[in-house]
Amino acid sequence: MTAADLDAADPLAHHRDRFVGAETDLVYFDGNSLGRPLKVTAERLAEFVTGTWGGRLIRGWDEGWFDLPLTLGDTLGRVALGAGPGQVTFGDSTTVLLYKAMRAAVAARPGRTEIVLDRDNFPTDRYVAAGVAEECGLTLRWIDVDPAEGVRPEQVATVVGEQTALVVLSHVAYRSAWIADAPTITALAHDAGALVLWDLSHSAGSVVVELDAWQADLAVGCSYKYLNGGPGAPAFLYAAQRHLTTLTQPVQGWIGGADPFLMGPTYTPADGVRRFQSGTPPVLALGPVRDMLELVEEVGIEAVREKSVGLTEHAVQLADELLAQLGVEVASPRDPALRGGHVTLRHPSMKAVTERLWQRDVIPDYRDPGGLRIGLSPLSTSYAEVERGLVAVREVLAQLG
């Protein structure tokens, strides 16, 4: 089928008009780094400033702001994470929440000395884990993986053991888009007595996640990719209900206390997932996330995933037809069941290609070694857009010789 045929048959195509800029000729291949804003967000942010904030002022804290990280967390859990109520909260950056979750997890496994993670995990995950290990006198146990693939259960099985306190992995690999076998890996870690922390930054809003069904312990993710929360939007944290009376996090702020307005002399953590909050909720910044979650709930995450698979299949097919003869390799899984929402195309010239494409209003991103990432946000990307972009990649590669 042609791109025009695919767009005509796409039941989600009409939702594209709800995003700012989707009507232009710009080709946006970076929705897995920063999603387009919804048009309704501009209207609602203006109303919030002049109406809710400007009109209600501090009364807003009693009218929903204070609990917004938790109520919106419940929505995210229901719509996109497969998580029951009371287990998800928003606040802080992904980095800060990773630190909180890692410190809480290793403290819950006293006497154990190792954190397991893979060398191709996102840099922040590795850097935070290294800091926590140094802080707590632990050792990092590394898994070596193919950067065109990802972590497999059998690799995890060879490194977890009685000294493993925590396993830290990305559900969807940032470089290759490999989808880890989360339920199997989680069970392997649990059999060894360890906890698991999943990074969902490239999963939430793009692939189907089932945290409760996986028996996951902890998860963290950002909201500015497929959740379209905007640059620097607050991250989210999931902590399984069964852990919420025992896990304690290291950044003890007033919001996370059992009675925030008691203003008492000592800190007592809240009973629920609120204990992972520290400072004042980022109310204004959560508005765009709420808007996108409304759309994802309207469409259904299964339908979003189906469109994502269609887009990435189209990209792989075009790469084979247009780029393979120029020496380009698909550095992502070809099996759509193992591939998330982006496709990485590898060639030694891709860094220069990326620079030239940006000048032509074709916006992918670049990741070493030689990887051009094609990030396809399902609700704002068309099949024709994918084709225009990959034709441009071929033209630029041909020019570079």
From TrEMBL:
Cofactor(s) needed for function:
pyridoxal 5'-phosphate
Which InterPro entries does the UniProt record give?
Kynureninase (IPR010111), PyrdxlP-dep_Trfase (IPR015424), PyrdxlP-dep_Trfase_major (IPR015421), PyrdxlP-dep_Trfase_small (IPR015422)
- Write out the entry's keywords from A to Z: Hydrolase, Pyridine nucleotide biosynthesis, Pyridoxal phosphate
The reactions it catalyses are: L-kynurenine + H2O = anthranilate + L-alanine + H(+); 3-hydroxy-L-kynurenine + H2O = 3-hydroxyanthranilate + L-alanine + H(+)
Q: What EC number(s) does this enzyme carry?
A: 3.7.1.3
Q: Which residues form a coiled coil?
A: none
Is Transferase given among the entry's keywords? no
Which Pfam families does this one have? Answer: KYNU_C
Q: In which pathway does it act?
A: Amino-acid degradation; L-kynurenine degradation; L-alanine and anthranilate from L-kynurenine: step 1/1; Cofactor biosynthesis; NAD(+) biosynthesis; quinolinate from L-kynurenine: step 2/3
Q: Which PANTHER family match?
A: KYNURENINASE (PTHR14084)
**The protein's assembly and partners:** Homodimer.
**Job description of the protein:** Catalyzes the cleavage of L-kynurenine (L-Kyn) and L-3-hydroxykynurenine (L-3OHKyn) into anthranilic acid (AA) and 3-hydroxyanthranilic acid (3-OHAA), respectively.
Query: Which family would the database say this protein is a member of?
Result: Belongs to the kynureninase family.
Q: What is this protein called?
A: Kynureninase
Q: Supply the source organism for this entry.
A: Nocardioides aestuarii
